[in-house]
Specification:
The complex is a heterodimer.
Chain A lengths: L4 H5 L2 H12 L4 H6 L5 H13 L3 E6 L2 E6 L1 H10 L1 H31 L1
Antiparallel strand pairs in A: 1-2
Helix pairs in contact in A: 2-4
Chain B lengths: L5 E3 L6 E8 L3 H9 L1 H4 L9 E7 L6 E7 L5 E12 L3 E8 L9 E10 L3 E9 L3 H10 L5 H17 L3
Antiparallel strand pairs in B: 1-2, 2-8, 3-4, 4-5, 5-6, 6-7, 7-8
The chains are: A mainly alpha, B alpha+beta.
Chain lengths: 112, 165
């Protein structure tokens, strides 16, 4: 199964978990308490986030705590964004050009 | 609402897809891709100037484009045109000349699908020689010094957001 940043953020519950853990350090049970789904389900999501290197677990005393790895998240934010903007910019221009050309064709039709 | 540009690039594979719909018939969208006079009007990122060195827009033809920025830096790319199947498909190769070594060629297939109401769906599939090649072109912004263009675009968007609706 795929384990990467995209897999990590593909699920809405996982996105909520990332947001939550980014704001406060919690144990897996602490995370689960804030959701209406089962502990097992949350535990599975945390496991996936850990495998995607978005969340790391640290042992402190008797408890294990979840930490967000912000650098790995930046990767997902940046990864396609610039490339998408390049193409968006380009295809927006194409869009404008097409509207102009299409408009002309329409006008020609009317005058004919 | 404006038509969205979608980029699909699954991790660990050698291809990516660019998808977009247009409010124009596909004959026209196809023409904007294959007619050099039209292509030059939209292909360059915003603050770059695109010059067509040559473009023989037919099956078996070839092309070379030169993008230059305000500082006079040039970014050249070239390729051969494998197929021009009007109005539904264009297949060509693409190579960025600014790379340290030759041979990192991309195979691009653009398909133009006619949608109801004179609309068109464009899908561009780019297949790279390696995952590293693909990830490089996506993340480095080396395709025509795109970083400056994004900065300008970001500034523009920021201004737009600030304006009252």
């Amino acid at each position: 199964m795929r384990r990467d940043v995209f897999q990590a953020v593909a699920d809405p519950t996982r996105r909520q978990i990332i947001n939550l853990v980014a704001q406060q350090t919690l144990t897996p049970n602490g995370v689960a308490d804030r959701f209406d789904v089962s502990r097992q389900a949350i535990s599975k999501h945390i496991q996936i986030l850990a495998e995607c290197s978005i969340i790391s677990m640290k042992q402190q005393g008797r408890e294990r705590y979840c930490y967000v790895q912000p650098r790995n998240l930046e990767e997902v934010a940046d990864w396609l964004d610039d490339f998408r903007k390049l193409w968006e910019n380009r295809l927006d221009k194409l869009d404008e050009l097409l509207v102009k050309l299409h408009g002309k064709t329409d006008n020609n039709d009317k005058t004919e | 609402m404006k038509n969205q540009t979608k980029i699909t690039a699954e991790r660990g594979v050698q291809e990516l897809f660019i998808t977009r719909e247009f409010e124009a018939p596909r004959e026209l969208v196809f023409k904007a891709f294959s007619d050099p006079d039209l292509l030059v009007q939209w292909l360059s990122p915003c603050e770059m100037t695109l010059k067509i060195d040559y473009m023989d827009s037919r099956t078996g033809g070839s092309y070379r484009f030169i993008n230059s920025n305000a500082q006079g830096q040039e970014f050249c790319f070239n390729g051969v045109i494998h197929e021009v199947l009007e109005p539904e498909r264009l297949i060509r190769t693409f190579e960025f000349e600014g790379l340290p070594e030759r041979g990192h060629v991309v195979l691009e297939t653009a398909t133009f699908e006619a949608l109801p109401a004179n609309r068109t769906k464009l899908v561009i599939q780019s297949v790279f020689r390696s995952v590293a090649d693909r990830d490089g072109i996506i993340s480095s912004g080396m395709e025509y010094g795109v970083n400056d263009a994004h900065k300008l675009l970001d500034e523009l968007l920021e201004q737009l957001v600030k304006q009252p609706v």
